[in-house]
Write a structure and sequence with these properties.
The chain is mainly alpha-helical. The chain is about 45% helix and about 0% strand. It has a domain of about 50 residues: MYOD Basic-Helix-Loop-Helix Domain, subunit B, CATH 4.10.280.
Length: about 90
Amino acid sequence: MNDCYSRLRRLVPTIPPNKKVSKVEILQHVIDYILDLQLALETHPALLRQPPPPAAPHHPAGTCPAAPPRTPLTALNTDPAGAVNKQGDSILCR
């Protein structure tokens, strides 16, 4: 778990690098940073000019649209050791 906090500390630019901060302070900085990013996305001029995404198609009650085939969870979970800490892994901690 400490590795996760260390990684968050490196990723969030608002955390002072040379100051000792508690885990709670790290989480507060992370939350503030996420809110700042969300606000930046919501108010970015290029995104404001785009038309809204098309509405999802309506499906009568009891019907579902055809979905692409999914990989079974058993196939995804066959090698748990190989799934952790791969280069470029986008999940911070497992």
